TrEMBL record:
It comes from Chitinophaga parva. InterPro entries: BtrH_N, DUF4872. Residues 162-336 form the DUF4872 domain. It holds the Pfam family BtrH_N. Residues 19-151 form the Butirosin biosynthesis protein H N-terminal domain. This is Peptidase.
Length: 341
């Protein structure tokens, strides 16, 4: 059965994206007539971030994030652009699936929060317990499978009801709880200056001004020092596991840390054109160079993990590289915070 055969006849245009949530936001808004690129959705939603939470375990290791928490990009972009949205979570699997069926029968494509582990169209190597993956369901095939526009995939696909229900109600942190979301009404027109300004101001606050030293550039330095102490604190085996998760969150979850920097750079360059502010384009070019620093860190960290014999000196060097990333980002976001709108 072709993925274009639907029982709800929703004419939904699939687009492959760099990151799941910003890709879903762009796709859903475009479906309802608001043309917005993925980087612009990411930037207005202030998606760029950093946090290290040693007390929050993800698959048994400390959690690291290079983007803001799930749902924030959609909520903030909607609020700033004047889009009215509806978001629902459920306790009951049956009710969650019924609610999804009701919306697609009405011709409304729906964003869903899911676990990667239960999505059978993902290659086995990428199916691990990550419960914050976003996708769009826009119809059902005659066989009863759901039609899926997953931003990570190059083409639209299908998923059986049982797998989708498992993905929507996976256990672990965070629990998706069947969450679904969709636009209810769109603005007649959009003025870009205020949403862009608000998104930039919030991103600068995230990266520079959160007083807790686990977030923003302070969080990078905090993690850098912990990486340097991994071998002596947790032993060689756990040090490799902990470091491996830092790399996984940077390079494999959505766009990851470096990719988010490249996407935010694209946002700044697009914003420069929309607002006629060439200084934003120059800062975008600088941020691209910061993304290169992160990629180099990941490459070197991967070599340490694969060697299975990363000595203390290797971890010391990796910590210094992350401190370099934090210093570059602090300079960049301080400049960005000074831009006059």
């Amino acid at each position: 059965m072709s993925a274009t055969t639907t029982m709800s006849n929703i004419d939904f245009r699939h687009s492959q994206s760099a990151h799941c949530e910003s890709g879903v936001v762009s796709s859903l808004f475009r479906h309802h007539g608001l043309e917005i690129s993925e980087p612009m959705a990411f930037g207005i939603g202030a998606g760029i971030f950093f946090g290290h939470l040693p007390f929050v375990k993800v698959n048994g290791v400390p959690g690291t994030t290079y983007r803001i928490f799930p749902g924030a990009i959609f909520n903030k972009a909607s609020q700033r652009l004047g889009v009215t949205v509806r978001s629902e979570s459920f306790r009951n699997v049956e009710r969650a699936m019924e609610a999804l069926d009701e919306k697609i029968a009405q011709g409304t494509p729906v964003g869903l929060l899911s676990s990667v582990y239960y999505l059978p169209y993902f290659p086995p190597a990428y199916r691990f317990h990550f419960n914050a993956h976003n996708l769009v369901v826009y119809g059902k095939s005659e066989e009863g499978n759901y039609l899926v526009s997953d931003p990570i995939m190059d083409v639209a696909t299908e998923i059986d009801p049982e797998s989708l229900a498992q993905a929507r109600f996976a256990k672990g942190f965070p629990e998706p709880k069947g969450k679904m979301y969709y636009p209810v009404s769109m603005p007649d027109s959009v003025s870009w200056e205020t949403p862009i300004k608000q998104g930039i101001e919030q991103a600068c606050h995230y990266m520079l001004k959160i007083p807790v030293p686990l977030f923003g550039v302070k969080g990078m330095r905090f993690l850098a020092k912990r990486i340097q102490r991994y071998p002596e604190k947790v032993g060689e085996r756990k040090a490799g596991l902990f470091l491996g998760n830092v790399i996984r969150m940077q390079e494999e979850i959505g766009t990851g840390g470096a990719g988010f920097r490249f996407m935010y750079a694209a946002f700044l360059q697009e914003a420069a054109l929309k607002l006629n502010k060439p200084e934003l384009s120059r800062l975008g070019a600088e941020l691209t160079s910061v993304g290169d620093l992160w990629r180099n860190f990941a490459f070197q960290a991967g070599r340490v993990c694969k060697s299975r014999a990363g000595d203390t000196g290797s971890y010391q060097e990796l910590g210094e590289m992350m401190i370099q990333c934090s210093a570059a980002e602090e300079v960049l976001f301080r400049k960005l915070a000074q831009v006059k709108f």
